[in-house]
Amino acid sequence: MPSQASPRPAPSPTPAPGATPTPGSAPAPAPARRSDATRAAILTAARTRFATDGYERATIRAIAKDARIDPSMVMRYYGNKESLFAAAVSVDLRLPDPSALHRDEAGQALVSHFLALWEENGELTAILRVGVTNTAGAERLQRVFREQLLPVARALCPDPEQVPARAALCASQLLGLALTRYVLRIPAAVALAREEVLAWLAPTVQRYLTAPSP
Questions:
Q1: What is the pTM of this model?
Q2: Contact 115, 201 (CB under 8 A)
């Protein structure tokens, strides 16, 4: 009598779209998480490229290659290089609350704050490199300081009409320090100890903020 073949097990049913995965199965990564990771990779690559190549020489193709994605993905998320630059160098200076600044110590507090900021924040170095060679970078840098440094000057300046000029003078010291110490890396500027920088610059910034008009 011929033996009967063992019945084959029925194939597992394919889960319907959106169905809860069965226990033990690996859930697919959430699209939102993939999107966030892609955006983060693009911005990281863009900051590096803008800092090393400058705005004009940095290309969408090179940034996409660094981020290990297709160039069309960069365009999908950011549209064009100008929008990508604006997103990549969106900088919060995290300035002290003007109301919390002691009037006679404002210069010391600001210079100390910016020293720490330049040393830990590569985005600021990137925006400064681009700002000295490109109109879009210069406009972005101007906006950062206009929106974030002006309120500090407004709170401390004895003459409201001089607020823009005094904020610009403060920026000349803070940006000049960053340019010589962190971008051009002039040896004498790099060699200055933090305490020396504070001793030289803090009184000047203090005078710009609070001294009577000359």
A1: 0.66
A2: no
Reference 142, options 175, 109, 115; nearest CA is 175
Q: Could you report the per-residue pLDDT of 96-127, keeping only the tens digit for each? A: 888 888 889 999 999 999 998 888 776 677 77
Inter-residue contact 170 to 110 (CB < 8 Å): yes
Is residue 152 within 8 Å of residue 101, measured between CB atoms?
Answer: yes
Q: Are 89 and 47 in contact (CB under 8 A)?
A: yes
**DSSP secondary structure code for residue 211 in this structure:** S
| Separation CA 165–CA 211 (nearest Å) | 13
For 162, which DSSP code? Answer: G
pLDDT in tens, 143-156: 888 888 999 999 99
Question: Residue 127: which of 31, 50, 41 has the closest Cα?
Answer: 50
Percent of the chain topping pLDDT 70: 83
Cα-based distances in Å from 139 to 47, 99, 115, 132, 136: 17, 28, 23, 10, 5
Cβ(115)–Cβ(197) under 8 Å?
yes
Sequence-distant (6+) residues with CB within 8 A of 99 are: 155
Residue type at 22? T
CA pair distance 114, 111, nearest whole angstrom? 5
Can you tell me the distance from the alpha carbon of 35 to that of 29, in angstroms, rounded to the nearest whole number? 10
Structure tokens at 200: 């030289």
